[in-house]
Amino acid sequence: MGNAEPTLESMKVWIPPDGLFSNVTQLDESRPVPCDNFDLIVIGMQEATWKTHSKSTENEVEGNEVVSVGDVLDAMDDQNTSQLRLMVKNILGDEYSQMVEEQRGQMRLSIWISDRVINRIHDIKIDGANCGIGNVLANKGGIIVSLNYKDTRISFLSAHLAAHEGESYYKTRCENIQSILREAKTLGISKFGLTSNLDNATISHHMFVLGDLNFRINFDGDDDHENNVKRALAMIEEKDFLGLYRYDELQAGLEKGDLLEGFQTLPCDFPPTFKVKRTFGFDYKAQRTPSYTDRILFKSFDGLTENLKPLAYEPCVDFITSDHKPIRGAFTITPNRTNDLAEFTIDGTYRLTIEKMKCSGLPAGDANGLSDPYLKFMWDSPNIIGEDVSLQEKMRKLMKCSKHVWPKTHYISKTLDPDWGDAKMSFLVENCFVGQMLYIAVIDFDMISLNDCLAVVALNIHDLIQADEFSQKVTKQLVWDGKAAGKIEFTVDASVVSRRRIISNSKPNYYDLDVF
User: Which of 201, 225, 237, 245 has CA 20 to 30 A from 360's CA?
Assistant: First the structure.
């Protein structure tokens, strides 16, 4: 928001009036419009506090980077909240209700829900993390909201990451996003006791990351700022936006695995959104290399990628009260459960047996540069039973030392490439639904202090059972704090305990969730 009071006209350019899909530009205009109105309107704002009668902001330092402790503390007692709420209500109309209104320093995240789905949304949880000065102040950081729609866990992270150009600032941005995922957990499935090991990127069926992520155009290490600005402006003049996008730090970082493993962002086939003068159209300031700082990323759980489809992705050209042009996107999500559960259920009881387990390239958990890893198996559903819980763990639960009992392997000393040999883990799964997950956490054993989680992988149980071959070898990327953390290999065998029947006697009557 550029720490300036937005006009109603600018906000209407960004937020679709009456929540109408026809007010956004569809990625594929040949496709039929999937909906009249959006079901969820998710609004992430950064630098979203202002003084009503402030002096001109035309000469401000980039992104209000010169921020005092007083500025941030003043923002915590900000008086702009009701003004923004009334403005958005005026735009969306009476068919929408605000379900989330969260402020963290100068960052905001609000969610408006259409009346037609409001009774289907539940388990709304909110958390956040600061990445400002000393990881205390909230001029940088993120807010996470998770919710449940028809047994589909959806998370939204609105973030404001470190500013400025250069390799060191790029690394800080990557560290910021890892820190937010590590610290901000919305306890979306806390009834199963999973959140101490799992972040929102792991437990969500679908997750979005949005905001001023501050990633810049980086012309292959060219340190001459003036040349970089001229080069970017020349490409913009030629409308070579995809050519410019090839130098985007964020896309390069995703490909290298520096951050947000498994996430994707749509190509920016439009002018950069930063740093612009506060006027109509794109008029860039020479202080910074024009860059795609304002972004939306998304990730779906393994096996559910076809259930999330992007519909629109565009900048808001005539938003005039900020030195950024806001970005907006539209998506449709098919939920895990429908009114007719037919095609989404595997009826019967199965035994899943996991064996030949080994990992490679794990992070070091100890001072000697090695780890003492073991595997812990967890799940998010009451119709899964672990058959390999040790007597010791059962006693701990009986003595109320442990709320949940999860099966685990033995630990292997001093290695980053453990192999558990002939060890096996078995699980009974009854009446499996789409979206049920089995989590494997790699834990570093410590005799004296608390054990530390090194990495996690989430498995789609429905897909494992429905596989054409009941015995299959699986290789998966391990992740921790959104970053690649080694690989895991194992063999899984699915066998029938009771009769297997895939029910598919009618077309499912589901209602997609349309998200803006």
Answer: 201
C-beta pairs of 240-243 under 8 Å, 24+ apart in sequence:
241/268, 241/269, 241/270, 241/271, 242/267, 242/268, 242/269
**Which helix (H) or strand (E) segment is 479 a member of?**
strand 471-480
pLDDT digits over 289-343, tens only? 999 999 999 999 988 999 999 999 999 999 999 999 999 999 999 998 875 544 5
- Position 187 scores a pLDDT of 57
**Structure tokens belonging to residue 41:** 């309107």
Q: How far apart are CA 278 and CA 284, in angstroms?
A: 10
pLDDT digits (tens, 9 = 90+) for 260-272: 999 999 999 999 9
8 Å CB contact between 512 and 38: no
**Percent of all residues in the chain with a pLDDT value above 70, rounded to a whole number:** 83
Strands of 180-235, DSSP E: 206-212
* Residues contacting 307, CB < 8 A, separation 6+: 205, 206, 300, 333, 334, 335, 336
Q: What is the per-residue pLDDT for 398? A: 47
Contact 304, 460 (CB under 8 A): yes
The alpha carbon of residue 272 and the mean position of all alpha carbons in its chain are separated, in whole angstroms, by 23
- 434 contacts: CB under 8 Å, gap ≥ 6: 303, 304, 336, 337, 344, 462
